[in-house]
Design a protein that fits this description.
Blueprint: E1 13-15, E2 25-31, E3 34-39, E4 43-48, E5 55-57
Antiparallel strand pairs: 1-2, 1-5, 2-3, 3-4
């Protein structure tokens, strides 16, 4: 299996492709295929990188 979020590092901004209502999230950690993200409108979530690719946000306006 491939880690779909291997390039994400702490501090990067992301969106959950299936939950746009969660708003933009900030990556807290990325360890062993588990990405912890703190979403603005939902709180802290752990994402399994082998099941879901998060979408990087490069301009959060």
């Amino acid at each position: 299996m491939e880690d779909l979020n291997a390039l994400l590092t702490p501090g990067m901004l992301v969106e959950h492709p299936e939950r746009p209502d969660w708003g933009t999230g900030q990556v807290q950690s990325n360890i062993g295929g588990k990405v912890t993200v703190n979403f603005r409108d939902h709180g802290k979530v752990v994402i399994d990188s082998f099941r879901l690719a998060l979408m990087p946000v490069f301009d959060d306006e």
